[in-house]
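WARN no homologs supplied; continuing
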Amino acid sequence: MRKNYLINACFILFISFICISVSSCSTTKNTKYFQDIPDSGVLKTIPIAAYIEPKIQVDDIMTIIVTTVDPTATQIINLGNIPTGGQSSGSPAAASQPVVSGYLVNKDGNVELPVLGEIKLLGLTTEGARQLIKERASKFYNDPSVVVRYANFKVTVTGEVARPSIYIMPSEKVTILDALSIAGDLTIYGKRDNILLLRENQAGTKTVYRINLNKSGIINEPYYYLNQNDYIYVEPSKGKAAANDVAQTRNIAIFTSLLTLIIVIASRVNIH
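OK structure emitted
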């Protein structure tokens, strides 16, 4: 009889272990990007989207550096760049980004530079702005060199990524893969086949894109290169809701298993 009791107890413990294991495991998802590219064999050539340089808009902040043979000659212009950067967003990820400086493009599309005066940059690329500023600076300085860059080329990445935040990009030529990498990539629960991208248009409207990272064709889509103020949202999968309940389910399974074991033990004791 004692042998049968031990066998029954072991059986109950085994069933309990199975219940706990099942309740604590989530369905494994295929998280591989570009699933249509073979792992081996013939290499696949994919056309890449044409890069279109962004145009300077109202409220953009542009870093403008003018240099000459005498570095002190243009110091007043270079020191006029207003400090800005990721710290303004208030999130830990953004706060760790370096502070950059720039000139604000006002409501009329102009920047006000010391010595050089007011210059209209609205609608220009950074290269076009550089040439225009250099032309103006040449009236005051001998053979000036000019650098123009975005100081607030920001992209928002939120949802199921490791570090959701507003990011100031180090370059204006940035892809959606770059932005997701900077945000720490998708979590295990992020839906890789249905990422939402919202893009502001100059007309005041927004264009909505649905992106499938499982397909290599995204490299040739108009959303591959990001624009200023793009908003990326990674939707959670159904497994995320299940994962949130896993602790509660595990506790219920443990409690039920232990209660069953106690009842069995008690019934055996009463029989003997």
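The chain has three domains: 2-29+245-271, 61-150, 154-236.
OK
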